[in-house]
Automatic annotation (TrEMBL):
FAD-binding PCMH-type domain: residues covered: 51-229
Species lineage: Bacteria, Pseudomonadati, Pseudomonadota, Alphaproteobacteria, Hyphomicrobiales
The name this protein goes by in its record: FAD-linked oxidase C-terminal domain-containing protein
Cofactor or coenzyme needed: FAD
Organism of origin: Chelativorans intermedius
InterPro entries documented for this protein: FAD-bd_oxidored_4_C (IPR004113), FAD-bd_PCMH (IPR016166), FAD-bd_PCMH-like_sf (IPR036318), FAD-bd_PCMH_sub2 (IPR016169), FAD-linked_Oxase-like_C (IPR016164), FAD-linked_OxidoTrans_Type4 (IPR051914), Oxid_FAD_bind_N (IPR006094), Vanillyl_alc_oxidase_C-sub2 (IPR016171)
Length: 498
């Protein structure tokens, strides 16, 4: 296995390892500190398992006070910290550093408050995504974002990556479903952003934190919005002779003003893998399959099913099936949500990508991926959130064959470049991490990246929180503060200086 280029290890920190471990045991007594090589192996990677690195020490705090003391201690001694939730990140966002404290938040696993009157739940960051829904479903409520890993991924990780899921088309990403957070800054200061109220005055700091990938602070509490379950929800399975026709159908459904609760697409390799794994009843004689879910009042759902069916027929659909029970609807989705592990049965390894494109570019990008597949000699299975253009190509390879991992990475990079070229972005919900870090200049200019770095510097001027992630070059904050003086004149001389 390989490890991407990361910041140089701090020799002074490593020399003090025994002292640091001892101090961590004072802050987090009991079994909250893991230091042996064998035990730390469980934390050497996240969901992007191609990259592995042992941390210097693993610390599992249980209280906000402990998190605060750990961060303050590390800040005062210039020790790096890598926050980690459940470790399901697919972008290497939780990849440890050899000279850093790996701060694992999995012990923060309690729901603190359920407020049905205000339709809110206050949870610690280690609570699983699905755990929130299970805590409120007895009253007819649920938490809308539902990543495929929702049974394991934590709500804190959802905030870090701005996760979505199959129903994000209608109900939004994490950013649209959280109301507030409590977080600890690198200095140890504990702050609150937002709350049960809908909006807060001033800068949108809550929006800034959502998707910040652990670079700005450590979340210790999350207030989320819960929704009433819709009166009716039915799913359609629609098969097409080609991915291009399925992609065109997606574009026309949205253009018609129809907003499904979810709209997912799978190509032939993914369809066959999922059906063999789950036996959901998927048609096996099609090249592409759409799963379209419509929810709301019964009359509205019935009407929209007819309209979607008409659009599908116009685009050459060869098969269409509508769920007639909740069990059947769940079976339709079970195949989609099990697609990633299912593909693992047909290939020794696979590399899961995450790029987002304008919906109208689906046919062009799918054709481009086929060309790239031939170029690199590697198969690709496509599973993605078709409604919002969030692609999840799965590049199939064998890590035991020399050079195949590197080919898979180059293939993935070319897919992301294609996404940007057609007007898309590098990620939809997996984050940048180390996986897409060196591709950031494909999407952003140097000035764009410097401006983003200035935000990082405002929260963490010494670059101690999750360094080596997201930014292709690690600048010192002082370098970004340099001012060019031309002929003795400062830029914008009329502005007041502080």
């Amino acid at each position: 296995m390989s490890t991407p280029r990361m910041p140089e290890l701090n020799a002074a920190t490593l020399e003090r390892r025994e002292e640091i471990v001892a101090d961590m045991r004072i802050i987090v007594p009991g079994e909250g500190v893991v230091e042996s090589e064998a035990e730390m192996r469980a934390f050497e990677s996240d969901g992007l398992t191609a990259y592995r690195q042992l941390p210097m020490v693993v610390v599992l705090p249980e209280t906000v006070a402990q998190v605060s003391r750990i961060l303050k201690y590390c800040h005062e001694r210039n020790i790096r910290v890598v926050p980690r939730g459940s470790g399901t990140s697919l972008s290497g966002g939780a990849l440890p550093l050899g000279d850093a404290v790996l701060l694992v938040m999995s012990r923060f696993n309690r729901i603190l408050e359920i407020d049905f009157a205000n339709r809110a739940v206050v949870a610690q960051p280690g609570v699983t995504n699905l755990g929130i829904t299970r805590a409120v479903e007895h009253e007819g409520f649920y938490y809308a974002p539902d990543p495929s890993s929702q049974i394991a991924c934590s709500i804190g990780g959802n905030v870090a990556e701005n996760s979505g899921g199959v129903h994000c088309l209608k109900y939004g990403l994490t950013a649209n479903n959280i109301l507030g957070v409590e977080m600890v800054l690198m200095t140890g200061e504990v702050i609150r952003l937002g709350g049960k109220h809908l909006d807060a005055e001033g800068y949108d700091l809550l929006g800034l934190m959502t998707g910040s990938e652990g670079l700005l602070g450590v979340v210790t509490e999350v207030t989320v919005r819960i929704l009433r379950k819709p009166e009716t929800a039915r799913a359609m399975l629609i098969g097409f002779p080609s991915s291009e026709q399925a992609g065109q159908c997606v574009a026309e459904i949205i253009a018609a003003g129809i907003v499904p609760a979810g709209m997912e697409m799978m190509d032939r390799p993914a369809i066959h893998a999922a059906e063999d794994f789950v036996h959901a009843g998927y048609p096996l004689d099609v090249e592409a399959l759409l799963i379209v879910e419509l929810d709301g009042p019964q009359a509205e759902v019935d009407h929209l099913i007819e309209r979607v069916g008409e659009i599908a027929r116009r685009n050459g659909a060869t098969t269409s099936r509508v769920s007639n029970s909740e069990e059947e609807r769940a079976a339709f989705w079970a195949g989609r949500k099990a697609a990633f592990p299912a593909v693992g049965r047909i290939s020794p390894d696979y590399y899961c990508m995450d790029g987002t494109i304008p919906r109208k570019e689906l046919p062009r990008v799918l054709a481009g991926m086929r060309t790239l597949s031939e170029k690199y000699g590697l198969r690709v299975a496509n599973v993605f959130h078709a409604g919002d253009g969030n692609l999840h190509p799965l590049i199939l390879y064998d890590a035991n064959k020399p050079g195949e991992l590197e080919k898979a990475e180059a293939f993935g990079a070319d897919i992301l470049r294609l996404c940007v070229r057609v007007g898309g972005v590098l990620t939809g919900e997996h984050g940048v991490g180390v996986e897409k870090r060196d591709l950031m200049p494909e999407m952003f200019t140097e000035e764009d990246l410097n401006q983003q770095m200035r935000v990082k510097c405002a929260f963490d001027p010494n670059h101690l929180l999750n360094p080596g992630k997201m930014f292709p070059q690690l600048h010192r904050c002082a370098e970004l503060g340099r001012m060019h003086i031309h002929r003795g004149q400062m830029p914008f001389p009329d502005l007041e200086r502080f």
